[in-house]
From TrEMBL:
<dbReference type="InterPro" id="IPR001647">
    <property type="entry name" value="HTH_TetR"/>
</dbReference>
<feature type="domain" description="HTH tetR-type">
    <location>
        <begin position="26"/>
        <end position="86"/>
    </location>
</feature>
<dbReference type="InterPro" id="IPR050109">
    <property type="entry name" value="HTH-type_TetR-like_transc_reg"/>
</dbReference>
<feature type="DNA-binding region" description="H-T-H motif">
    <location>
        <begin position="49"/>
        <end position="68"/>
    </location>
</feature>
<protein>
    <submittedName>
        <fullName>TetR/AcrR family transcriptional regulator</fullName>
    </submittedName>
</protein>
<dbReference type="Pfam" id="PF00440">
    <property type="entry name" value="TetR_N"/>
</dbReference>
<dbReference type="GO" id="GO:0003700">
    <property type="term" value="F:DNA-binding transcription factor activity"/>
</dbReference>
<dbReference type="GO" id="GO:0000976">
    <property type="term" value="F:transcription cis-regulatory region binding"/>
</dbReference>
<dbReference type="InterPro" id="IPR009057">
    <property type="entry name" value="Homeodomain-like_sf"/>
</dbReference>
<keyword id="KW-0238">DNA-binding</keyword>
Amino acid sequence: MDATGADAGGMARTAKSGGVRAAKAAANRARMLAAARDLFVAQGYASTSMQAIAKQAGMAVQTLYFTFATKRAILTEVLDVEIAGDTEPVATLDRPWVAEALAADPAGQLRLQAAASARILTRVAPILEAVRSTAAHDPEIAELWQTNIAQRLTVQTRFAEALAAKTGLRAGIGTDRAADLMLAAFAPEAFHLLVHERGWQVAEWEANAGDTLIRQLLPDGPQSG
């Protein structure tokens, strides 16, 4: 084998080895995030230590600190992953379901928003409840909670603007108020109360949220969707 062949073989082995290491690192990261999520939900953020997360994940605590540095960093990434449903670096407003909803007729848009919110909140409402309950006495987590609200409002404002461009909103409703009503209808607190505390089925919550926004935001008359 000539030098060129030897170099190519070495590069292939190096690439393969790097791929294996990357896959192992990603799997370990996912284990740590899953362990943190389960513990934050089960016993609260404040009561969960880095040592406990490492033990739950079956990892050395030094590995946990090396990967995330702080408990808040873990919580932030847990939220990001649970909201997205994956680890892809794609913003919410760039997700395919958003484009589908924005392209729908007015009632269809609101029902697609409710369907997406049901899927997202099924994943993230328990961890958001842990964040909300901690925010009352932890300034760092209070800041994280406010950031989450602001992010949700940004998304709903985009939807409200799109809705207003498709149809005249109900009299007295502007885009700011429409965004606020969407924010309230899809609030994780309401989802947690009705689904986890009152025993509603997720499909019932979804239908109610969509119907409520159609009544609140759209003018009277036949609506598609």
